[in-house]
Amino acid sequence: MPDILSLFEQGPYSLPTTQKHKVLLDLLSELTHHHRQFCSPYYKMTTAHGHDSSELNSLSDLFQLPVQIFKHYELRSTENTNLIKTLMSSGTTSNQVSKVFIDKETTKLQTKALSAIMGNFLGPKRLPMIILDSASVIKDQKRFSARGGGIIGMSTFGRDHLYLFDENMSIRYEALDEFLAKYDGEKIVLFGFTFIIWHHLITVLEERGRTIDFKQAILIHSGGWKKLESEKVNTAEFKKRAKQVVGVDQVFNYYGMVEQMGSVYMECGNGHFHASIFSEILIRDPVSGKTLPHGEVGVIETLSVLPRSYPGHVILTEDQGLIHGVDDCSCGRKGTYFSVIGRLPKAEVRGCSDTYEATA
User: Which of 58, 129, 324, 339 is deepest in the core (most CB within 10 A)?
Assistant: First the structure.
């Protein structure tokens, strides 16, 4: 059985897929056994569906939890006394809230994985960071939304943080001018959620006929695409307008969810999402459940070796996508690379920035 800590000794996109799958199968099989032992509801669900951790021949054999299950059950694989925080995400069409219970060990693994992934894109040094949100979002760090959790997680990869918006989501121009003057000519990193960046930065500046010079910045963003689809805003339009209004050339989206914090799928310069050494995705037929070959659109299943305090290691999402290939993306990163097409029809709209309406 490989030690998960050995993964951190390698580059996050360094293993060929065949070798990586052998490692992941061992680790995920052990995780399935762990969660069956310490999470009674998970044991009952896997047993009822005829799954255990003793006869797994491939990643596709692993039992998948539908992501909506976290809205209906409080799933934890550790004692309550070991928990240090609860992450929550909610849908826009339901009052039900997903709860993800995190202990110290899981937090450590998530942070180390995220650090390795982000370091591959941002470099080894922490850059001055502007968080494109309000500091009010992270007031309660023991019970906060996916939006707050995302900010906390990403903020560790920057320094001298500036929250761009006040509690009313208005741009703090004076504080911004001071920050930009302090780091004039230096590379900085911007982080925020797509929907919020669009509505509280890009469109606001356009309406006022203003621009901001972020040409030395790298923009990392995610979430809220479903809301922007109704406004006919896609990735290309977002990047185009971001360059026009705030001058940023390097824009990277990422795919991720509160149920698998740390295992983010970063977008490379070719516009492909990449699975790191800590994670993998499969594409399944929405009717038969069978795994689909590369190039065919189906339901995205995400796998992560990080969650130990709750059974979130194999999740069937509500998103559609397709795999383009493995190990041969021209960006040079090994592993699976893919695209997200959108939500399944009639699937509940949810995600990192869906908490915006309740908190902003």
Answer: 129
Q: Does 10 reside within a domain?
A: yes
One-letter amino acid of 113: A
Is 246 found in the same domain as 115? yes
User: What's CA 222's distance to the chain center, in Å?
Assistant: 8
Predicted TM-score (pTM) of this structure: 0.86
Q: pLDDT tens track of the chain, all 360 residues?
A: 568 999 999 999 999 999 999 999 999 999 999 999 999 999 999 999 888 766 788 999 999 999 999 989 999 999 988 988 888 875 544 567 788 999 999 999 999 999 999 999 988 889 999 999 998 887 755 555 667 777 887 888 899 999 999 999 999 999 999 999 999 989 999 999 988 999 999 999 999 999 998 988 999 998 766 677 667 778 888 889 999 999 998 899 999 888 898 889 999 989 999 999 999 999 999 999 999 999 999 999 999 999 999 999 999 999 999 999 999 999 999 999 999 988 887 654 444 344 334 334
Computed on alpha carbons and rounded to an integer, the radius of gyration of the chain in Å comes to: 20
Question: Same domain for 119 and 197?
Answer: yes
Find the domain containing 301 and state its range.
4-78+265-352
Domain boundary among 219, 234, 255: 255
Print the SS3 string covering 26-67. HHHHHHHHHHHHHCHHHHHHHHHCCCCCCCCCCHHHCCCEEC
Rounded CA-CA distance 258/352 in Å is: 7
Residues 185 and 213 in one domain: yes
Q: Is there a domain that residue 65 lies in?
A: yes
Q: Where are the beta strands (DSSP E) in the chain?
A: 65-66, 83-90, 97-103, 127-134, 143-145, 158-165, 188-193, 217-222, 250-255, 265-267, 273-274, 279-284, 298-304, 314-326, 336-343
Instruction: Assign 226 to helix, strand or coil.
Output: helix
- Do 238 and 347 lie in one domain? The reply is no
Last residue of a domain, one of 255, 275, 291: 255
State the CATH number of the domain containing residue 328.
2.30.38.10
